TrEMBL record:
Residues 44-87 are annotated as: Disordered. Belongs to the universal ribosomal protein uL4 family. The keyword Ribosomal protein applies. The gene is rplD. This is Large ribosomal subunit protein uL4. Part of the 50S ribosomal subunit. Pfam families: Ribosomal_L4 (PF00573).
Length: 206
């Protein structure tokens, strides 16, 4: 089992913790990680783009001129695509880009992402993360004590003081153990996680 240091909020080492190899020590599968990231980005797409085709554009009901004898090319409507103000050919319409991947693949990808952070020594375990009040300055101090800036902070339970303290800090995102995903783990340079959150993740994914 991988052994990592446990820090307090002042940045001092107060012990160590052995991470479960079935979650934090698996063989990294880059292909599954890629699948999970592409899946999440696709599911986040709104798909609300909408353009009018010739049947949806207002007007153009009358034939602009007679079929023959004018010297002009024949035209049936001033709302055909070649006219200014006409409809768009193959106009994009609202659509759903989301799709699902195998649940086992998603779990394996998450474990691979967590393992890669452990291998790169970019995971920091805190004994606890608690504030008596909402204070962004205190949250920044904790990160400075750990010498990290762009970080995903994973907490074991929803603590309003912690979440709101981190809300205005640039390049920082807080997440609960049941909301973590591969994209966020890879997006942020470091993962700061509480000891309680580690135990919960191991309980669910081991």
């Amino acid at each position: 089992m991988a052994k990592v240091s446990v820090y307090n909020m002042e940045g001092s080492v107060v012990g160590d913790i052995e991470l479960n190899d079935s979650v934090f020590g698996v063989e990294v599968n880059d292909h599954l990680v890629h699948l999970a990231v592409v899946n999440q980005l696709a599911n986040n797409r709104q798909g609300t783009q909408s353009t009018k085709n010739r049947s949806a554009v207002r007007g153009g009901g009358k034939k602009p001129w007679r079929q023959k004898g004018t010297g002009h090319a024949r035209q049936g409507s001033t709302r055909a695509p070649q006219w200014t103000g006409g409809g768009v050919v193959f106009a994009p319409q609202p659509r759903d880009y989301s799709y699902s991947i195998n649940k086992k693949e998603k779990r394996a990808a998450l474990k691979s992402a967590l393992t890669s952070r452990v291998n790169e020594e970019k995971i920091f375990v805190l004994d606890e993360l608690k504030f008596d009040e909402i204070k962004t300055k205190k949250f920044v101090e904790v990160l400075n004590n750990l010498k990290v800036n762009k970080a995903l902070v994973i907490i074991g339970e929803n603590d309003a003081n912690v979440v709101k303290s981190a809300k205005n800090v640039a390049n920082v995102k807080t997440a609960l153990t049941n909301t973590i995903n591969v994209f966020d783990i890879l997006k942020y340079d470091n993962v700061v996680i509480t000891k309680a959150a580690v135990e919960k993740i191991e309980e669910v994914y081991a």
